[in-house]
Design goal:
The chain has 165 residues and is mainly alpha-helical. The chain has one domain. It has 4 helices and no strands. It has helices spanning 27-42, 50-75, 82-114, 127-163.
Length: 165
């Protein structure tokens, strides 16, 4: 028996329907893993800071924009139109692209650091502190790639929804 509250093909959810429809169910994992990347990279002390600055920008930007996008959908501030479906696809495509670039940069810096080609600041002198920060960076790389995967899946499913309009 079909539910009477099911979303018709080509419609955008609003209210609590965002929590139960695909691709919008990915908002929460995107926020969780993006927030974890933000926290872990912020607690790192790797030098040079330039690639990590890009990772921080991407994680903070995507976290804030995903939260705003989720609130727009939850409050019903969007109209059920092709332009909103297209904007949803474009945003998640850009977020997936940004997160992929940030994930690759973070993985590269972490590999260089693990091989001894980069160093932390002068404040780190013992092996235990080195290992702790290295593990934090590895966790940030893993969570960054997971966030990239969620944004990519959301992008593909948003494109399918946009095409169904």
């Amino acid at each position: 028996m079909a539910s009477t509250t099911a979303q018709p093909v080509g419609s955008l959810p609003s209210g609590l329907g965002v929590c139960t429809t695909v691709p919008d169910v990915f908002y929460l994992p995107e926020l969780i893993f993006g927030g974890l990347v933000w926290i872990l990279v912020a607690s790192s002390h790797v030098i040079p800071a330039n690639p990590l600055g890009w990772v921080m920008f991407v994680s903070i930007f995507c976290f804030i924009m995903t939260f705003i996008w989720l609130m727009i959908f939850l409050c019903g501030g969007h109209r059920n139109s092709v332009s909103w479906a297209a904007a949803d696809f474009v945003y998640h495509f850009l977020a997936a692209f940004f997160y992929l670039s940030a994930s690759v940069a973070l993985a590269y810096i972490t590999c260089l650091y693990g091989n001894g080609l980069l160093a932390f600041g002068q404040s780190i002198t013992d092996l235990n502190t080195f290992n702790r920060y290295y593990r934090i960076d590895i966790a940030a790389v893993v969570f960054s790639h997971i966030a990239t995967l969620f944004y990519f899946i959301h992008c593909i499913l948003s494109a399918m929804r946009w095409r169904s309009f």
